[in-house]
Amino acid sequence: MGVRILFLGPLSDLAGESEIEVAAPLDWEGLLGQVDAEIAQQLRGTRVNIACQGRVLADKTALNAQDGDEVALLPPVSGGQA
């Protein structure tokens, strides 16, 4: 089974795909090693958030995804007009 990583918004363009599946368990360092260097650089910044099983992590480095989990990489949202 493994862990499914979802690339959302412009991150999917950078990745060249919308999702990948990797071996479990997956921690912060493992995640950085599984994605492209440009995406890893963005993940290290404060603008990209990570959600695991639908919950946004307050501390990205605390990622601890297990077999069957879904990890979503959430780029910053841009505002629209109301």
Automatic annotation (TrEMBL):
Signal peptide: none
Family annotation (SUPFAM superfamilies): MoaD/ThiS
Domain of life: Bacteria
Protein name: MoaD/ThiS family protein
Higher taxonomy: Bacteria, Pseudomonadati, Pseudomonadota, Alphaproteobacteria, Sphingomonadales
